[in-house]
Design brief:
Layout (H helix, E strand, L loop, with lengths): L6 E3 L16 E4 L2 E4 L8 H12 L5 E6 L4 H11 L6 E5 L16 H14 L4 E5 L6 H10 L4 E4 L3 E4 L1 E2 L4 E2 L5 E5 L4 H12 L6 E4 L5 H10 L3 E3 L2 H5 L3 H15 L17
Parallel strand pairs: 1-4, 4-5, 5-6, 6-7, 7-12, 12-13
Antiparallel strand pairs: 2-3, 3-11, 8-11, 9-10
Helix pairs in contact: 2-3, 3-4, 5-6, 6-8
Amino acid sequence: DLSILGGVVTKGLSLQPKTGNPTPRIVETPCGMINSIGLENVGIPVFLNEKLPFLKKFDTQVIVNFFGTTEDEYVLAAEALDQEGISALEMNVSCPNVKKGGIEFGRDPDALYSLVKRVRGVLGRPLIVKLSPMVTDITQLALAVQEAKADAITCINTLPAMAIDERFRRPVLGNITGGLSGPAIKPVALKIVWDVSRCVSIPIIASGGIATYRDVIQFILAGASAVEIGCASLRDPFCFIEVIEGIRGYMEEHHIESIAELIGKLETSR
């Protein structure tokens, strides 16, 4: 029952359908997986007509991830998705698996500011910007996003990675490289959330290696206001139930009335 969740975030959508990268597109690794889906999606019109009605059956927030290759594409996509039944949009400027997936905007604070400002200007719903860890200083990107009036930031997207089959001396993935996710990247994501939380005042959504209630609590302490769980749900689609029950037990044990009491409460003094 998706209604037990605070929200559901879709995979990335574009103005027109996209076929994605050649197969194989997923490979398991120690402590995670590498994916090279390449932003395959049905396109915004099909999503609005066929997928959104299903999601609207549940009492949860529907957050739609979207992307483009130019500023104009991002603006048109945001306008098309500014629909009843969609609670917020998450703008992807950080996919490492495609040559043209907006990641060029996610590396340049000035370009990102310009993009976010334009999208913010046409959008009536909250705007979240999903950032890449593959930058020199992610705090500069986060500050640009905040200055352009985005409502929240998601940290982080996957890390570039690859896998090789030594028997055939070939890369495992059809696209050669992909994006690493899962518990292997959690320490990186945790540190980035902590860094970003100390430089911006807008909420941060944590993403990267979250699989247990302990992971959730740790990211909240580091400064996140919410979390997204992706990779773990592929291993166990019902993992959310265990995570929610674990959070509830933690709060009862520590006499916490609201999870918001823990946001950014990491004790760093010794």
